[in-house]
Amino acid sequence: MRGFQRGLVLLTAALAVSSATAGVSSADELGRSQAVIRYTEYGIPHIAAKDFDGLGYGYGFAAAEDNICELANTYLTVSARRSAYFGAGGRGDPAMSEAENNLDSDLHFQRINDSGVIERLLARPAPHGPRAEVRELAAGYVAGYNAYLKQTGVQRITDPVCRGADWVRPITELDFYRHFYAVSSVGGQGLLASDLVRTQPPSTKDVPAAGPESAPKIADGLRETMKTGELGSNGIAVGGDGTKSGGGLLLGNPHYPWQGGRRFWQSQLTIPGRFDVAGGSLLGLPLPQIGHNADVAWTHTVSTAITFGLFEVPLAPGDPTTYLVDGKPEKMTAQEVKVEVREPNGERRQVARTFHGTRYGQVLGSAFGVPTPWTTKSAHALRDGNAGNLRGLNAWFELAGSRSTTDVADALARTQGVPWVNTIATDRAGNALYSDIQVVPHVTDERAADCGTPLGRALFPGTGLSILDGSRSSCDWGSDPGSLEPGLFAPSRLPLQQRRDYELNANDSAWLSNARAPIAPLPRIVGSTGTQRSDRTREALIATEEGLAGKGFTPSSMKDMLYRGRSRTAALAAADTAKMCAAFPGGQAPSTSGPVPVGNACATLASWDHTFRLDSRGALFFERFVDRIGGLRGIWQVPFDPNRPVTTPNTLATGNPDVRKAFGDTLAEFRANGIPVDGRLGDHQTVTRAGKRIPIHGGPGDLGVLNVITALWDPARGNHEVVHGSSYVQVVGFDGKACPDVSTILTYSQSTDVTSPHFADQTRLYSRGGWVRGRFCAADIARSPELKVVRLR
């Protein structure tokens, strides 16, 4: 059916074509086509056009064919219409914000839409607004999406999720930019969407404000909220001194949800002789966010930089909507927002909410579960560094055209639009780059100390989240002459390092991007220095140093390093755990419910190779044990030493009674549910696709596994259902040949449509430990055994 539909579009489809036509190596070969799409193995489209409008058209058409329901759901969300179709309850779209339900989501996005901020940004010329080529891509994308929808018809959509649904509609360019704005701000106002929506003026009885003693709780809330945002990644760039070929080699390994709209979609975009880039883009954004061209490869990892901050403002006596700055009163803005809600009986009603704002941003009644209340005496306001950012589209356009890591650094600095991520890159010449040039509020350590509220001064050193005194205009965010936007650090003030051995990041700060050349000092808002690294960062550093100590990395050894699935936590603690197990008196482990026979647990852990592969025995049990002790204090005998950050802490505190009891409780859980301690990981860690369970290798990032897989544990079924982890993975090497050596895997596959042949094909390939051969050059594309060519006119 899907292949038949492709032939119905205003196009000519050819399943067998000449190599020249398949490669589209010149503009003449495009003929009168708006775009030519060459599909290779696993449904990967290589889109060629004469101009950016045509390129966007091809991307929009192909992306809609694979993922029309997911895309339509995104546009429903950012147009603030979820409640009108689905009711006020349910879960708001987690890909676009952390709103807890549809009503909160709609009120959040309607406030943004009514404010006109996106239209104002679009009215600005580049670099503040989209550059001309980006505007052409966007216009073409919208036209291509709408062309697919018109040609198919809502009633004939193959995906049962939205076939015939009244919420599937054509889109506008404003929908496109609203989507990007949501992505850009998801790490700031998007994190606090429900808190912002639910903030109301104070009653006559004040709610006690959080004091400095609340700093640990709010810090935990911040970490948990960032965690539920489901953002993480590994990026490893090896330079020419560390590769066998002498050219650069890159691993890009973002960890993203396996369901929903925050997913990657793989493609190649080509204008012959002018533009040629391939990689994974967040679905609906026609530029690779993680990708490569013929000379450069790059990836991103979520940064530790906090891209937002709070301000506490004193209120005028007797008027809770007037606040004081430098002793002078300023009236809060009041913005009434209305959204439509569908009731269970089908009737519709309007819900109105009034948002109040200050010169700093929207008034916020709580943050991460801790009261920052709007009292009769003061209020707190949220300022989001990405509230004025559409520049990221320009950033990814310029990254696509880079020819060296120096070009990458220049593009990041020139656009200053990357919203909440680091950049790791390498190039043909063998350079490796780490950069945290992105949107970062200009809050120096000195400003946080001088202007922080009591809670802010207690919170900032541990988290980087600032709460500043809004009563003094001098306490607003600072600025640098080199910054594109007031209130942000200039690129020259942010971490950047290029070397010939390696640079990497696994969601820790810039400090140990290279263990041989620490980056310090850092502004605290950017990240910490001299602090404990995650076990995943430690594994990345150790594994990379091991690769350099050998004969040099190759693309093959880099792929093996990822799929090996070694756990740094297990390397540090599994042997100690096995010895603890063997030493329990009478072979009985203590547990909450009483002694539990250890059985074969000790031998299983002693023989386990510390990996999370399908045939690993003991991995699941160890994971559940570590999950129990993860929140405990004093689990290591050797504490963290900043002079030995890669090897400390270490040595499990097996004498800790809580550690011993956690082991017994894990045993009891396995026994009660009939789960074998020595069961194969692949028999218990799976993902369900079309009713079939597919075994999945990989393990938790918290256990120092690079090939991150996050699963929901159901002990009654003895199963881990995968929900998150490695997503679009690329290994790109430059070895002197014209065409880079590329291998990729999109773990959850290209399409969300259960009827598509590409709904789970790469998922099964990933399960088998396989990779997709990258086909970047025209001749490679032409040689694909599954080549299909579609011409859009």
UniProtKB/TrEMBL annotation:
Gene Ontology molecular function: any one: hydrolase activity, acting on carbon-nitrogen (but not peptide) bonds, in linear amides
Signal sequence range: 1-22
Keywords assigned: Hydrolase, Signal, Zymogen
Any one Gene Ontology BP term: antibiotic biosynthetic process
One Pfam family per UniProt: Penicil_amidase
Domain of life of the organism encoding this protein: Bacteria
Family of the protein in this entry: Belongs to the peptidase S45 family.
Name of this chain's protein: Penicillin amidase
Phylogenetic placement of the source organism: Bacteria, Bacillati, Actinomycetota, Actinomycetes, Pseudonocardiales
